[in-house]
Amino acid sequence: MVAQVEAMLGEMPPYIRSAIIVLAGSGLRIGELLGLKVSDVDFKNGTIRVERQRLQPGLIGPPKTGKSRRTVRVGEVVTDTLLAHLAARPSKEWLFTMEEGEPLNYRRWKTEWNCARKALQEAEKEAAEREGRKPVELPHMVTHDLRHFFASALIAGGASVKQVQMVLGHASAVITLRIYAHLWPGEEDRTRSVMDAVLGGLRTGCGQVSDLTSETAGQTA
After folding, report:
1. What is the DSSP letter of 92?
2. What domains lie within the chain, and their CATH numbers?
3. Measuring CA to CA, which residue among 105, 122, 87 is closest to residue 35?
């Protein structure tokens, strides 16, 4: 998935390229990203405040649910990207704008996203032709996959259901589990991992059988 994110990043036009990193590094919905103002980003504390979403061109509304109004902590990769974005495209109000200066809307975003995806597939066809092989059909990646990428990374890093729910702005933990339950380790896997960690100092090693073990088993070399 990281490779797919990097590939899309390389094909998106410069004026919205940083949005790919923000979506992948924050778990925001695309409507929430389009509704961000410069003042919503706290660069010092590394947070993004989600207060609104852009529903249609010119139409701003509240986030999807009450839980969707939240403050998301982001890493330096995201904040550095946004600082570079604002240095290249200064704005006093909306964080992401179109080349004409108007706030970025979903229609324009979807057009640019689809063009980038098509460019990737065309590049794969050209590479396959040069190398004399059959082209690989690339995954049909949509914007929401960046949100799933973020959630998957959190879960792989040990985040709890409650933590993932709060960061993503789900109305309840039930919704979070409905979507991502398969990514959390099962109880048996968790039990093994916990006990291996607790008893790790008593481990005798693996691979070749030691002399002591061989003698105990009545097997001399």
Report:
1. S
2. 1-221 (1.10.443.10)
3. 105
